[in-house]
Every structure is written in C-alpha cells, then in structure tokens.
C-alpha cells in the first residue's frame, strides 16, 4: 500500500472482477463503506489486483472534516489527552484477538486488508486532536502520509510484545489482529513461487535479524507503556519533512505541539509513575523512532530487499503472460506483423511488472517513461533468449529462437519474409546473417553455457532498468534511486 500522492478519482472495479471486501466504519453515518480487493485467480495463479479508490475516498472523507471529533463538550483537553483518547478507540479495533494463529507463510493480501483497516482507524484517531483537525486538508494529508508507516511499524511491534511478552529470542510478530508470523520458521509466500521465495531468503533474513537487534529487542527491553507509544506517535506525526510544502500555520502548530507533548511526557514521568530521573529512558525512547525508519522508509537499505522481492513477484506474473506455450511451431519465415503483436503484449506486461516496485512507481511520469523507453529493448532481447533456452535447451548448434509465445524461428534455415519480396530477402541475407552469427557467438551461446536462473534474469532486468542513459535528462530523484 502506498500513499504517495493526494487521492484521485480512481476507476471503480469492473463488474466481472472478483472482489474481496472489508467493511470499514463510515465517517458521519452509522453505515459502512467498503474497501474492495479485486482478485484475478488470486491464489491458484498468484495474481491479485487491488482497487485503491474506496480506501482513498474513506481517508479523504475523514481528513477533509474541518473540526475535531467531539469527546466531552465543555471540557478543554490537551493534545496528548485527546490523542490518548483517540488511541484507546483505535487500538480496540486493531489489537490482537484470541485465538492467535501462528503462521509460517506470508500472505500479502491479508497484510493489505489489515493495513487498510489500520489506515482508516488511524485517520479517525488523529481527527480527535484539534491542532491536527484544524489544519488545511493538504497539510493533514501530508502529515498522515509521511508518518503512517512508522506508526504502523511501532504499533505492530508494541502489539506483539503486549501479546507474546518480551522474550528476546522470540521471532513471532503480529501480522493482523488474528495472525502472527514466526519469521524464524517462515516457509513460503502465497504471492510467489517456492523457488523464488527460497532464493529471496538470503536477502530478507539478514534484514530481519538486523531489525530484531536494532528495534524489536530494544523495545522488549524498554517495555514501552501505552502512554509512551502515544507520545512516539505524536512525535512521528509532527516531525515535518524538509522537502514538503507545508503552510506556515502548520509549521507553527508543529513547533507548538512538539513543545506541549514534551512537557506532558515530563508530567507523566514525574507525577504519574514517579520517575524523576527519566533522561536515559527518554534517549532510548527517541532512538526507537530512528531505528524504525530504515524499516519503514522507502530510501532505506531494507527496501532494496523489497525491490527484488517485488520485482520477482512482478516477473512471475509477467512471465506467465508471455512464456512459450505448447505446441510450439517452428517457422522458416519472418513476419514483422506477428513480431509487433507480441512486442505490444510484452510492453504492456513489462510496464505492469515494473509498477510492482515502489522505487520505480514513485518517480514522476517523465522519468518512469524514460527508464522504460531506454531499457525495454535490452530486457526484451534477454527474455526471448532466456525463454528459448528454457524451452529448447542449451545445444550450441541450435539456431531456433522464440519469436512469440507460440512460434520459434529457425534462423539457421530461414527462407523468406512476409514483409519483403523474395529477391529483396535474398539480397538482405548478406547483411543480417553475419549479425545473427555474431549474436549467436557473443550472447546466445554464452547464455546457454551459463544456464541463467530466473533470479539472475530478474537481477539483470533490474540492472538494465536502473542503468541511466547519460544522454537523457532524468530528475535528481531518479538518479538517487539508482543507488538505493
């Protein structure tokens, strides 16, 4: 789930789509609105599509209200008092509920369903706070967008510790309100093949160990109270991003609220729990925010893992649409029209595959188009040869190459072209035969000798995509993303 731009009118799900719907409370009436999860053969073919429009509409409707949700008329409450009240209602809806099932399988669809419920409840929680609710819609949306990942991460770990306790070597983490995943024993993912999952373990296991050491275990040692968690949520919310265009009013409110919540935390330590020397605990507390950023922020090393996982997942769906399908016809005739038809299909599926990757999808349209434009031919060539070797094997003297998903051309015995006269074709052979022989020697045969794996192919696709062309003017963000 990404919220990288303000909500737009997203086309609604087609009537012939299969939808999974989750009821979420409406904003102003005792009715329910529905978040739709559109699924195409969602489990058997590892494909699902999610309709973001209902979620965006629900959040937009909540944040567009100009006044804070009422608590007790006539009583003036501080920011932390209001946020604590909102958190109590919020947590009642998303806390763990017995019995908790321990899972050893990732389920991205289940994760999205819980995240969407979390996002709606979080937006409602923040609207209990007058300082937040009184801001203009754009700034409320920016504050929400820039803080929800950090808040989500800390809340999931807080809920984990509340339910399972603070044993250091326990790798179970709450996934949604009824399921926890044991990351030490996770065996598969519903959204990728077993082969791809097994290969990805060498990437995400070290990252999970780092998260365990730098964030989860310190939280277990600290034994965070609910009030301290709410304080951290307030800090995350009001820490403004330097590159965002907030209004002057919002910057002044953020400064004022940050001072208020610091004073209220002091009062909590000194007068409520009798902790006068709390400086050391406060340092550890604020360190949790910094430790959670590499996990939740899209410019962290952790998301390098997510990029390859997402690209592998996208490739699985992409390849299902363009791979060779029996029976394969061997042709001795070149047809440009058939080539164009297959390339058109390839280009559409490739674009969809790349949009699974957050770093790519978050770029502006111009940069996405330039990266796509300058890489697709290389990716196409490599994929066709990979498919050829997968289907026909690695015999060095085999001149057959996959043309589309049902046809291969035997270039060593090519006799004609549908797009030129026989005379023109015969004359052109002196030009393209040396080129084909050079391709066979420098690219096809080395690929056959290498026996490229699917994971290695996806890695090469990533390299081709992010190798920026020196002559095209990409934005600084696109250039920075190259190094992520």
From TrEMBL:
Name under which the protein is recorded: NR LBD domain-containing protein
Record organism: Acrobeloides nanus
Domain NR LBD, residue spans: 79-325
Alphabetized InterPro entries for the sequence: C.elegans_Orphan_NR, NHR-like_dom_sf, Nucl_hrmn_rcpt_lig-bd
Keyword match Transmembrane helix: no
Keyword Coiled coil attached: no
UniProt keyword list: Receptor, Transcription, Transcription regulation
One Pfam family matching this protein: Hormone_recep
């Amino acid at each position: 789930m990404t919220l990288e731009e303000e909500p737009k009118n997203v086309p609604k799900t087609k009537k012939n789509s299969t939808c999974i719907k989750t009821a979420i409370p409406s904003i102003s009436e005792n009715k329910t609105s529905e978040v739709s999860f559109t699924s195409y053969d969602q489990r058997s073919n590892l494909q699902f599509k999610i309709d973001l429009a209902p979620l965006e509409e629900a959040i937009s409707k909540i944040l567009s209200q100009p006044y804070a949700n009422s608590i007790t008329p006539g009583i003036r409450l501080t920011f932390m008092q209001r946020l604590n009240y909102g958190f109590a209602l919020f947590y009642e809806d998303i806390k763990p509920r017995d019995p908790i099932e321990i899972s050893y399988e990732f389920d991205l669809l289940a994760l999205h369903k819980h995240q969407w419920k979390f996002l709606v409840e979080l937006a409602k929680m923040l609207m209990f706070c007058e300082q937040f609710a009184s801001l203009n819609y754009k700034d409320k949306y920016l504050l929400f967008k820039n803080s929800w990942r950090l808040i989500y991460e800390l809340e999931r770990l807080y809920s984990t510790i509340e339910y399972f306790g603070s044993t250091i070597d326990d790798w179970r983490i709450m996934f949604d309100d009824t399921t926890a995943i044991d990351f030490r024993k996770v065996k598969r993912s519903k959204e990728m093949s077993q082969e791809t999952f097994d290969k990805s373990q060498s990437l995400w296991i070290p990252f999970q160990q780092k998260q365990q050491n730098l964030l989860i275990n310190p939280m277990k040692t600290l034994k965070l109270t609910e009030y301290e968690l709410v304080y951290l949520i307030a800090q995350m919310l009001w820490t403004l991003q330097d590159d965002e265009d907030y209004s002057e009013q919002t910057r002044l409110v953020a400064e004022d609220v940050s001072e208020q919540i610091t004073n209220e935390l002091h009062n909590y330590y000194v007068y409520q729990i009798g902790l006068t020397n709390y400086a050391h605990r406060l340092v550890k507390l604020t360190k949790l925010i910094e430790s959670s950023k590499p996990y939740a922020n899209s410019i962290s090393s952790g998301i390098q893992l997510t990029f390859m996982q997402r690209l592998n997942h996208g490739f699985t769906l992409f390849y299902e649409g363009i791979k060779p399908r029996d029976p394969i016809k061997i042709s001795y005739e070149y047809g440009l029209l058939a080539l164009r038809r297959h390339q058109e299909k390839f280009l559409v599926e490739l674009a969809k595959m790349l949009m699974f990757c957050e770093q790519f999808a978050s770029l502006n349209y111009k940069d996405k188009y330039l990266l796509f434009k300058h890489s697709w031919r290389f990716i196409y060539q490599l994929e066709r040869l990979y498919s050829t070797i997968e289907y026909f094997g690695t015999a060095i003297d085999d001149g057959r190459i996959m043309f589309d998903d049902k046809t291969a051309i035997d270039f060593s015995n090519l006799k004609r072209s549908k797009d030129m006269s026989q005379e023109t074709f015969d004359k052109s052979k002196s030009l393209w035969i040396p080129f084909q022989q050079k391709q066979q020697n420098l690219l096809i045969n080395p690929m056959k000798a290498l026996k490229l794996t699917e994971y290695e192919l996806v890695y090469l696709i990533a390299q081709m995509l992010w190798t920026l062309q020196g002559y095209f003017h990409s934005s600084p963000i696109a250039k920075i993303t190259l190094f992520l």
